[in-house]
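User: My instructor asked us to take a sequence, write out its structure as tokens, and then describe one feature of it. I'm not sure where to start. Here is the sequence I was given:
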Amino acid sequence: MKRLLSMIVMMCFALAIVGCGMISDKTKDQKITIQAAASLKDALTELSDNYKKAHHLSDDQIAINFAGSGTLRQQIEQGAPASLFISADEKNMKMLEEKDLMTDVKPFVTNELVLVVPKDGSKVTLEQLPTVKRIVLGNPDTVPAGNYGKQVLIKLGMWEQVEPNVVYAKDVKAVTAAISQGAGDAGFIYKTDAIASGDAVQISAITSADSHDPVIYPIGIIKKYDNELARDFYKYVTSPEGQQILEKYGFTKG
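Assistant: Let's start with the prediction itself. The structure tokens for your sequence are:
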């Protein structure tokens, strides 16, 4: 009887260790690639670094591909060897779900869309955008922030008027860079990107929630490359500890 109780205690202790973040020997040899929206670059890089350090993983065991969500979705559809997808919109995630490529999809974080101008430039309101010569926008077909920005301009009834002055960029990081370098006079990016830029750009206006679709980032596991490491990292970034780091970068819980 004592031996049985001892075994039970040892099993419970082992389970407690696993619950505290230990991973199996098998998992320690696995590798994953994460497809993530460009706006998550700073936050997700810190999360990945923290996780690898805590679990003694090598740098190449967690790779992250940052790009516009539409571009990432197309890569997944074409069979890119990735285990996790974090989109900056629900549209691209739903397209993959409809093709039965995803599992365990749920809201991850939310964000806000803002209008920014160069740090030394004059602020403009949303209503003043028709007077702006160069409006930088992520490609609406592949960049959710660009699509949200276009929705705002349509809502304001000025899309056709300003479209000739729109300069397209590959993702929100490229929009931020264009504005900070003076290659554009105003642009739509996320609040988190504006915060991350330091004083490279300045927020000129904040879009209202009813002027575009909700900025919700869903996370999901790609079925074809699902493994233990992917699931454990998924668990970590959606945990209170992971969410705390995301909040530091300006994101809010999904």
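For the description part of your assignment, you could build on this observation: The chain is about 40% helix and 25% strand. Try explaining in your own words what that tells you about the chain.
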